[in-house]
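Hey all, quick one. A colleague (J.T.) asked me to put the magnesium ion job into the tracker so the inputs and the structure tokens live in one place instead of scattered across chat threads. No bug as far as I know, just bookkeeping. Sequence used:
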Amino acid sequence: MKSVTILIPAYNEAESLPVFFLSLRQFFASQPAYRWEALIVNDGSRDRTGQLIEAFHRDDPRFRFLTLSRNYGKEIALLAGFDHTRTDAVVIMDADMQHPLEVVPQMLAEWERGAQDVYATRYADKTEGWFKRTSSRKYYRLLRRLTRVEIPADTGDFRLLDRRCIDALCQMRESQRNTNALYCLIGFEKKQIFYHQAERLYGTTKWNFVRLFNLAVDGITSFTNAPLRLSLVLGLVVSFLAFLYMVFIIVKTLVWGDPVTGYPTLAVLILLSGGIQLIVLGVLGEYLGRIFSESKNRPLYFVSKESPTAESDPAETADTSSVKSSPTH
Ligand code: UDP
Ligand code: MG
């Protein structure tokens, strides 16, 4: 029997989780052809999420949990989840019920047909704000042009990943992660399906402009040197224009003499070149910062609490022994 994990990163989701828990149990019962498991990664929540997931585990040992030592952000929470699953496939879902369980059987069907990464693209409903929708669409178009990574629009983390994809993702240990781009980078047999995204059940989205901006910059700088190249081009263009202007000034002085004028021009030029230098330095700094943080090579997360592992449970060990590949970490 194939085993499948539902992986749920949760940060302050105490309101949504009980509902999700109930519908997941019903769902598991409706799909007896697989051995189900849920792994809830508590990403340093400050509400009752931690207590809830422990209670779920006591109720039903198929619900496992992993509590991280602090809030690391969804990308790292997902990696922690990948590291701690051993099943043949993993389905990633948000805790806020925005991802309908009804889509999962369709994912399983595609997986059975040989797809290794079944990703769900949302129809352009209006469940997300105008700003987030347009900005994310524009951003992915930009990323597509700058890199050779084909990131499909309106697609997030709601997907089924085969064990081989999970193992590949576990090997990518960069600290500033953009998982969405990594899915594309690893390749494998992909299959697109569509779904209607529901409204968030409780609470508000954890994303804000600053977080999205940081994610966007991380995505670009971790996949392409294009901004560095662009700085070079910018420098060349400006230098060339400056050279033309210099020739013009020399000729003008030789032909018409040099009455001291042109203070405004001077001021504008100094400001312009100063600005460009700062931008270029900023781009350099962005890459330098990445080198700095990757070179420290720190552990990406710490686990503060975890549901009892399969090793301590003889019944479960027998079950997982059929899984061929083991996770890298
Ligand atoms: N999440 C997380 N850590 C964070 C922020 C979010 O684990 O620092 C989880 C959150 O609990 C949810 C999922 O990531 O299950 C998606 O978050 P959210 O619904 O806020 O994002 P959106 O759906 O608006 O993109
Ligand atoms: Mg959400």
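Adding what we noticed when we looked at it: The chain has a mean pLDDT of 83. The beta strands are 3-10, 35-42, 63-68, 89-92, 117-122, 155-162, 190-195, 303-306.
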